[in-house]
Design a protein that fits this description.
single chain; about 70 residues
Length: about 70
């Protein structure tokens, strides 16, 4: 996984846990044969592809915080 891509993607998804989950789910999809949404270079891993998709705005997410329980 490229540290440069990771750094750029973390600017878009600042929550590290959320970024890890997004990348891991997309890597799973790519491994199962889903097509990449960006142009793939010769030495790009699936994790790099997922990060590039996030950076390019091809892979989006919707964050819904859990409601706080009233006491």
């Amino acid at each position: 996984m490229s540290s440069q891509l990771l750094e750029e993607a973390s600017k878009i998804v600042p929550n590290t846990a959320l970024l890890v989950n997004l990348v891991s789910k997309r890597v799973r999809q790519l491994t199962m044969g889903h097509r990449p949404l960006v142009e793939v270079g010769p030495r790009m891993s699936n994790a790099d592809v997922a990060l590039k998709e996030i950076i390019d705005g091809k892979l989006t997410f919707e964050f819904q915080p859990e409601p706080v329980a009233k006491v």
